[in-house]
Please model this.
Amino acid sequence: MTDPGTLTAWRELVRTRTAPAPVPLVPEITTWQATDLTPLWHATSAELARYDASPFWAFPWAGGQALARHLLDHPELVRGRRVLDFATGSGLVGIAAAKAGAAEVVGADVAPFCEAVVPMNAGLNGVSLELRLEDLLGRPLAGFDLVVAGDVFYEQPFAARALAWFRALARQGVRVLAGDPGRLYTPREGMADLASYEVPVSLEIEERPIMRTWVLEVQPA
Model:
């Protein structure tokens, strides 16, 4: 766990470098967001060098937005269930699961800064998320009914590990849903298309302002 003084400094960085704003595709949810990547990147590089110098948590990514929208529009997917939000980032998808009626939501990520920003975003939306700062890939996952993952197929080794784990979970009866805008390493087989959305995104992090994004269900094989 991060020491209290560092957490206080991180929370102050969030408050001074970002502002609460509705998520474009999911305006029911508000998160701390940046409008300009460069100053925030410089600030995190200077102040978070020992921890996490990449402020990916400050922007709603396409996959997370689509998945959050889908959960809110289809609350039967999560109602009364125990949900793991894998690679939670800002906590957006986990917050959507909680608002849609999940019995319990756990967000998992390896970025230490999530310990500051996820509770802040959850608080903005009046929900509670348990946070696990650990790498769960390949590990047994007991007690969960559903795993949700937004935008995780962006880098080849990580995408391959994630997909293998997702399929193993699916074989065990855990439902796994992923939000993805067709990243380079998105799997093309063994995925069922559940829905697609036209997602507004920031040109600070993407090459175009609207991205067609899919909600996919991972199949066992």
The two ends are 37 Å apart (CA to CA). The domain at 61-218 is CATH 3.40.50.150 (Rossmann fold). The helical segments are 4-17, 37-47, 62-73, 92-99, 114-124, 156-171.
